[in-house]
Structure to design on (470 residues):
DNA sequence: CGCATAGTATGGTCAGACCACACCTGAAAG
DNA sequence: CTTTCAGGTGTGGTCTGACCATACTATGCG
């Protein structure tokens, strides 16, 4: 019973591209050769090339679009959270992970990022300024729930970016994305949403104030309470 | 310039399967319908179905194999670290993230897991017993470097599993996987490896002892020193 | 009953075709 | 000269239909 190593054809292309990325023969902004060209180069069919392209796509390594010209085809981007989000989302659906674990992880990452000494003080100050703008935008009473959640997510990811760790930042964003549907579905009516959003606004302002006055530990504590409180409302 | 909503055909199948997973119409161990059947059900071609299957595959949701019978075709598994590992690995190659960030994240997760109150004390005790066995196996002087690294990885992931958080555990494993090639390449010769492995054995034993005697904070501190020291050797 | 054989369904791969789209070129219009 | 627009070209997206190796299943022979 010889267990086949099962060498998939698409891995030829995948490994070649990964190697080109590693050696910087390819980097962000570059265009990949066309699918037909890759197929001929590696002596495999276009269908197998497409398998590799699809993987790079869902992993957030490339962005594909039709048409011709410099901005068409497969272009290298760098969106680490795309692949992680998709993975978490699917495993959440498959019951491999649950909401408690995601919330717990989010608290871990966000409080860590809050207490971290910023790698780049200039960036940290920019974050504080930009989050202030987001807070103002979230004060708009006309804002739809979808828009609020979008800005809310940006607020949290921005704060986490202060730590200067792309892995943590991507995970944060991914954790947020993976349960966004769950959150939206668990607060169905607008009547129950209105009192919640008022509390969220207050909490955001308190968190921002703690950051602005450099009270990192307090900011972390407020973040933890904020996240825990919000998810306690989604039942 | 109307930005295309770009409705990809494979998303039809992907969303249908995700929904079936969410409602538990599909769960671990089940077989997916054949690709030809799915194509007909959703009115799309088999090629597009295969796109969705490929995504589920690389994300660690399913495992595919040829042949017929109950154990063939696409079977639901649950391997959250597969997709995350792949994503991290590719973005590491694409320079979207770097080794420092991965090591930093690993320390964050492992020290958190070490200090966490175990969700399941019985499992925690089993982990302590099993890690003891792993430590003994790593004492074998005949062990190849690859085998040592494999057991080493198992040791760390096991300890992290005590916290009872699948997200943290998967991320741990993924972080470890994503840089395993880097680690292997950065210590090329066996002469420099020998003194390193002796230190690693000592550190593992100290960490295990701290866990066994319930000195969680000390365990976390030793883990941090252990990880930092090891990566300081890989230059 | 035991076992070899043919049958069947699976995913993996390939080839070739057509489509919609975005850009590029160059001729026609101003 | 510039502007406009019509066609040409290359891209990924999709479909069809075919063949392969594999692994199980059923058949029928001994």
């Amino acid at each position: 019973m010889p267990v086949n190593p099962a060498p998939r054809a698409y891995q030829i292309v995948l490994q070649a591209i990964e190697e080109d990325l590693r050696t910087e023969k390819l980097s962000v902004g570059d265009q990949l050769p066309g699918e037909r060209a890759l197929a001929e180069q590696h002596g495999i069919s276009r269908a197998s090339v497409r398998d590799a392209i699809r993987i790079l796509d869902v992993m957030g390594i490339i962005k594909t679009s039709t048409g011709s010209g410099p901005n068409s085809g497969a272009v290298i981007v760098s969106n680490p959270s795309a692949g992680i989000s998709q993975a978490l989302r699917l495993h959440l659906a498959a019951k491999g992970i649950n909401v408690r674990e995601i919330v717990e992880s989010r608290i871990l990452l966000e409080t860590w990022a809050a207490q971290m000494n910023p790698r780049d003080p200039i960036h940290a100050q920019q974050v504080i300024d930009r989050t202030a703008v987001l807070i103002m935008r979230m004060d708009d009473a006309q804002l739809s729930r979808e828009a609020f959640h979008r800005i809310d997510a940006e607020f949290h990811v921005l704060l986490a970016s202060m730590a200067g760790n792309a892995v943590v930042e991507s995970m944060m964003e991914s954790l947020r994305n993976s349960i966004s549907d769950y959150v939206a579905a668990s607060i169905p009516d607008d009547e129950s949403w209105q009192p919640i959003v008022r509390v969220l606004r207050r909490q955001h302002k308190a968190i921002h104030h703690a950051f602005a006055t450099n009270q990192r530990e307090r900011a972390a504590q407020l973040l933890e309470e904020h996240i825990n409180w919000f998810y306690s409302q989604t039942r």
Q: What stands out?
A: The mean pLDDT of chain A is 93. Residues 190-212 of chain A form the longest helix (23 residues).
